[in-house]
Specification:
Layout lengths: L1 H4 L3 H17 L5 H7 L4 H28 L1 H21 L4 H30 L4 H29 L2 H27 L1
Helix pairs in contact: 2-6, 2-7, 2-8, 3-4, 4-5, 4-6, 5-6, 5-8, 6-7, 6-8
Length: 188
Amino acid sequence: DYTVAIKAPVFYVLLVFAFFMIAVSTLNLFLPTYVTSVGFSVEQSAFVASAIMLGVTIGKVALGSINDRSSLAGVLTSTGLGILGFVFLLLGTAGMIWMTIGGFLFGWAYAGVTVETALLVRTVFGTKDYSKIFSNISIALALGGAIMAGAWGYLADFLNFKIILSIGIVLLLISGLIGLYVLRVNKN
């Protein structure tokens, strides 16, 4: 129930998961600039942005289906493909195909923000008082988006995009580990 859930340590761990996932997704705002900064045209950066949105669209449907079978597989898919997407984006200087694939795979992590967060909360806390519990977790999504959109912009003024994308990889890795932890705690 709600009063028990908000006192549970796993509730606060899920807040961190939600915050990190939205933090990563707000990098979407800066990826077209990254693509042009490494020498591609504005048209090509728009193509990568479209690949991201295609990844989000397909990712949301696919992650829903994957989570129906296994929450663990859902967490690993969204964070794992997101990490792979960042790796391909970092390799993207070698060619537009890498950028496009990277964008598409990053879209799966972006999709995981809403899909994985909601399904992890439901898996851990069940359906009783789900709407109250999730509405509290979603505060981390709203705050994370607001804070990190500005924070990434600030960091982009001082750091190389490769460092920023590498930070994204680290945040997705931590998110994946949090997801594994939450599911293990739930099992016990």
